[in-house]
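Q: Two folds, back to back.
A: First:
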Amino acid sequence: MILPLVAGLAVFYVWPIVQSCYYSFTSWGVFGGQQWVGFANYRAFLSDPQLPKAAWNTVLYSLLMLLSIPFSIVCAALLNQVRGRSVGLYRTLYFLPVVSMPAAVAMVWRWLYNGDYGLINYLLSLVGIHGPHWVSDPRFTVYAMAVVGIWASLGYNMIIFAAGLKGIPRHYYEAAELDGAGRIRQFFSITLPLLSPSIFFVSVLTVIGGLQMFDTVLMMLGRSNPALADSKTIAYLFYEDVFLDNQQGMGCAIAVVLMAVLLVLTAVQFRLQKKWVHYE
């Protein structure tokens, strides 16, 4: 019964990973063909002067993306209190960014962030604040892209947390009310502990997605943006090496290193979850 799924995973996931590991030790010509170069690609990647800044941007973006978790929990808890037909409307509105095309999302946010005529700077000007150029000033680009990422992931996280909230037995809250616990005390003493498996699941996905951040950089900044050099991520370095510089071997080395980092971080998260995740 599981053979079709196992075959699909082996062909479309396991085998490409094995191929990438092999090709990371090779150098490709313009018209194909591989030449074994050993660890040359890894040495070149680790000595790349762009790597420290790209690694810092990737880590910073991933940490900022974790802020979506408390926002999602609060929104899911508030949505859980809504009754009637409006529940479906609210869920649809919150989930729209998840199903929207990334290019359309980038175009809308580039207009909002525009330093000359963007809506955000216009609203700031109403209170006497001169807004910066959010996506062309390297001091703000990573934070601006993180806001987009948080906004885009809010709906997906809310669905997971809403399902987790539905699974919390109502009698816990009834017992807490009898003991005099208010809504805030119930939230921190009942909701958060019993929602910890969902929080753990979302945190793992958020870190994995944050470390692979690429499309927002490509579509919001563009290659001619003066802030691009200081706003690249590791995934963007992969894009440059493979699709712009035709260095497939280097790209495979970057992919293998990123996969190894993801495996280590995920293993650490699974190790730490034993101390704060409650499954009962």
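A: Second:
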Amino acid sequence: MSEASIDPAAAEVANFTWTKFIKNIATFKGDLSALTAPPFILSPVSLTEFSQYWSEHPDLLLAANNAGSQFEPKFESVKYTDELNQFLFVVRWFISTLKSQYCSRNESMGSEKKPLNPFLGEVFVGKWEHKDPQGTTICLSEQVSHHPPITAYSIFNDTNRISLQGYNQAKPTFSSAMLSVKQFGHALLKVGDFNEYLLTLPSLHIEGLIAASPYVELDGKSYIQGSFGHFAVIEFFGKGWMSGKKNSFKCKVYGSKTEYDEDIKPIVVISGQWSGKSTIYAGDDEKKKKNPQEFYDASRIAVEQLSVKPIEEQNEIESRRAWKDVAAAIKEGDFNKIHQSKTVLEETQRALRKQEQESGNTWNNKWFDLVPVDEDTKSSYMKLATLAQLSLEDVPSGTVAGSKDEAKWLKEDSPAQHWRFNREKWDNETEITL
């Protein structure tokens, strides 16, 4: 390709060095999620596809509804009930999702990449087909908001009567050469007719920016609250200057949030690396490293790929079809083509939004509804969040109710609303097929 044929704007992006990118982040004013990333840091995958990472081990998700199954390993000192067994299956499934969600790109691409920013209404669908009698697990993902960017998702298996729904919004900030991300949203897991679990999302930060080899490290805490009272607090921490291992965590499981508050001995403690091996101990044996048993080994268990129909059979708003030219250009390293393809797609979307505005219409979401928290009667979110003493407001996931952190993020003129899956809308869907 001759120099004369290169788009000047694309050429400027192509010459955008890593150092310039870091300086741009550091001086950028406004929402960092809106910052245009140079081609060399782009992933060929849209953020809507990330929802599948919740179930790349669908057998572990479905295991949560294996009624009467004994969780292994089993400790003689622990009094097991059906409810505790199920809660431990849920904890193991949640830990299994973390590697796919937060470091699979680092392994497949050499470093963390910025996913393509979905356009409003973009969808991603697929399924996992299982051997009888496990049926089919379906994954639905939809970009329900563009400003701010929010992705909602639902994963369900009717045969096993298990379903997951949730949404995610990331708010990044930059300080001291570190990119920090607060996650908004939560996940709700329903098992059978009555058992539900609230799962909050950890905060994270991007390390390795100065060395031009970024990777994700989780920090802060995640909580799991079960409808029968069981409560888990998962604390994340990375490698320190002198000791420790990256991707480390410690999870303590209690019979209730009250037991956690009163510092009563936990039922079990799990510790290790969420991207590798973790160990489970009974009670406070973790302190003494007494009678350790393997809990989960993320490095040993391969993921099960989601089945997605060929691009030529997809609707134009489905992720892989919509972004196919951009994705191909990223894989080829063709900066000019990346810029041109992204521009065509983004300008088309801007034109659609302008047409809607001029005609007085608004975009109608396909499968998810924005529900005020006091009208959220179809889920157990309010009950579970209250049991866990977590904020019901639109604040970072896992924020404690009445805390200084909650006050910091509260907006008086913005009543709490959460995205909820509308199964009836999916059942009546005619344009998008699996």
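Q: And?
A: The first strand starts at residue 42 and ends at 46.
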